[in-house]
C-alpha cells in the first residue's frame, strides 16, 4: 500500500484564484447595468462624464506610480472601478474639467497618498464626491430630469422641502426604473439590484452590509415617514438618491468595511441610521455618502472590539 504524503505548511490553508484584477472585473460587470441605464436616461452627457472620470483616474494612478517609481497598479482595474463610481456620484451636467479635478483628488489624495489600494481609510469615490460638493456646490446640485431633459429637483430635494413651486414627487415605479433626476448611477434601482445579484452570485460581497443598510433605512424611513407617503415612505427612501448605489457598491468596499460579519452588521445599521438622520433633520437632502464616510472612520474601532475568539482560548484569563 502506497503511503499517503501530506504537505505541511503554515497558514492560511484556504486558497482561491481571486486577484485584485478578477474582483475588480466582477465589480465592473456588476456596474454595467447601471452604466447602461445612466447613459440611456442622461444620453451623451452621462457617457462623456463616465469616460472622463475613468480615463482621468487611470492616468492619475499611472502618473503617480511613475513619479514615485513604484509598481504600476494602473492595470489592476481598481482605478476603472473608482472612476466609474465617481462618475455615478455626480450629476450628468457636471463640467468635464470638474470631473478631472475630482478624479485627480480621488486617486492621488484619497488613495495613493495613503499607500494605494487596500490602505485608504475612506472610500475614494465617496470622498471625491464630498470634495466636489464642497468645492462646486452649485454645479454638483444642478439636476437634469431624464424624462424631458429639463433642469429640475430630485425626489430628495422635494421631500426635504427645499424646492419651491409645488414640484410633484415621481412615482415609486419611476424611481424603481430610473425616470428621476439625480446622479448618473443612482437613478435606476432596478439596474443596481441586478448588479447586486451578480456580486452575490460571484461571492464578491455578502448580503450583510447591503441588506442591513437598506433594511435600516427602510424601517426608519417608514417610522419617520416624509412626503405623505404613508407606509410606502421607507420603500421610497431606499429607491431614491444614492442609498442603493452606496449600500451595494461602496459600503461593501473591502478596505473600508469591517472584517467580521457581526462588525459589518453594526457598521451597516449605524450607517443606515445616520443616513436617515441626515436626510430628515440635516441641512442636506442626501445623507448616504456622508453616512458611509463617517462609518469608514469607525471601522478600525469596530474591528478592534468585534472580532472572533481565537480557537482554544475560551475561558482563559490573562495573568495579572
Short summary:
This is Ion-translocating oxidoreductase complex subunit D. Part of a membrane-bound complex that couples electron transfer with translocation of ions across the membrane. This protein has 320 residues and is mostly helical.
Task: Give structural notes.
With 320 residues, the protein is mainly α. It has one domain: Ammonium transporter fold, CATH 1.10.3430. The chain is built from 14 helices and no strands. It has helices at residues 20-67, 78-88, 96-111, 124-135, 137-140, 155-160, 172-177, 189-201, 208-223, 233-239, 243-250, 261-281, 288-296, 299-305. α1 crosses α3, α8 runs parallel beside α11 and α9 runs antiparallel to α11 (243-250). The longest helix is centred in the N-terminal third of the chain and has 48 residues, at 20-67. The protein is globular, with a radius of gyration of 21 Å. The termini are far apart. Its cofactor is FMN.
Structural class: mainly alpha
The chain-level mean pLDDT equals 87
CATH architecture: Orthogonal Bundle
Helix content: 55-70%
Beta strand count: 0
| Residue windows where pLDDT falls under 50 for at least 5 positions | none
* Count of structural domains: 1
CA gyration radius, whole angstroms? 21 Å
- The CA-CA distance between the termini, in Å, is 54 Å
| Order of helix and strand elements from N to C terminus | HHHHHHHHHHHHHH
Strand content: under 5%
The main β sheet shows up as: none
CATH-assigned fold name: Ammonium transporter fold
User: Based on CA inertia axes, which overall geometry fits?
Assistant: globular
Give the CATH level 1 class: Mainly Alpha
Helix count, DSSP H or I runs of 4 or more residues: 14
Pfam families: NQR2_RnfD_RnfE
Membrane topology: Multi-pass membrane protein
Keywords: Cell membrane, Electron transport, Flavoprotein, FMN, Membrane, Phosphoprotein, Translocase, Transmembrane, Transmembrane helix, Transport
Cofactor: FMN
Amino acid at each position: 500500500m502506497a503511503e499517503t504524503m501530506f504537505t505541511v505548511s503554515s497558514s492560511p490553508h484556504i486558497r482561491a484564484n481571486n486577484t485584485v484584477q478578477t474582483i475588480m472585473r466582477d465589480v465592473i460587470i456588476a456596474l454595467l447595468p447601471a452604466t447602461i441605464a445612466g447613459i440611456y436616461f442622461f444620453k451623451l452627457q452621462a457617457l462623456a462624464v463616465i469616460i472622463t472620470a475613468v480615463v482621468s483616474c487611470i492616468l492619475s494612478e499611472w502618473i503617480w506610480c511613475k513619479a514615485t517609481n513604484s509598481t504600476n497598479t494602473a492595470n489592476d482595474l481598481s482605478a476603472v472601478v473608482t472612476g466609474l463610481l465617481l462618475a455615478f456620484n455626480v450629476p450628468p451636467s457636471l463640467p468635464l474639467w470638474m470631473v478631472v479635478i475630482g478624479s485627480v483628488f480621488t486617486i492621488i489624495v484619497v488613495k495613493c497618498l495613503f499607500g494605494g489600494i487596500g490602505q485608504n481609510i475612506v472610500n475614494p469615490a465617496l470622498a471625491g464626491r464630498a470634495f466636489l460638493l464642497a468645492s462646486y456646490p452649485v454645479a454638483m446640485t444642478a439636476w437634469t430630469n431624464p424624462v424631458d431633459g429639463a433642469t429640475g429637483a430630485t425626489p430628495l430635494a422635494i421631500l426635504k422641502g427645499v424646492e419651491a413651486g409645488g414640484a410633484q414627487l415621481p412615482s415609486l415605479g419611476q424611481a424603481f426604473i430610473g425616470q428621476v433626476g439625480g446622479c448618473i448611477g443612482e437613478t435606476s434601482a432596478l439596474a443596481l439590484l441586478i448588479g447586486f445579484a451578480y456580486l452575490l452570485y460571484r461571492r464578491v460581497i455578502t448580503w450583510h452590509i447591503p441588506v442591513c443598510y437598506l433594511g435600516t433605512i427602510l424601517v426608519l424611513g417608514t417610522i419617520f415617514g416624509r412626503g405623505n407617503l404613508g407606509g410606502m415612505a421607507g420603500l421610497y427612501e431606499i429607491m431614491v438618491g444614492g442609498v442603493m448605489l452606496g449600500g451595494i457598491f461602496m459600503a461593501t468596499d473591502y478596505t473600508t468595511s469591517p472584517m467580521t460579519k457581526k462588525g459589518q452588521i453594526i457598521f451597516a445599521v449605524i450607517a443606515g441610521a445616520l443616513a436617515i438622520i441626515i436626510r430628515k433633520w440635516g441641512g442636506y437632502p442626501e445623507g448616504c455618502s456622508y453616512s458611509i464616510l463617517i462609518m469608514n472612520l469607525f471601522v478600525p474601532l469596530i474591528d478592534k472590539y468585534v472580532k472572533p475568539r481565537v480557537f482554544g482560548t475560551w475561558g482563559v484569563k490573562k495573568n495579572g
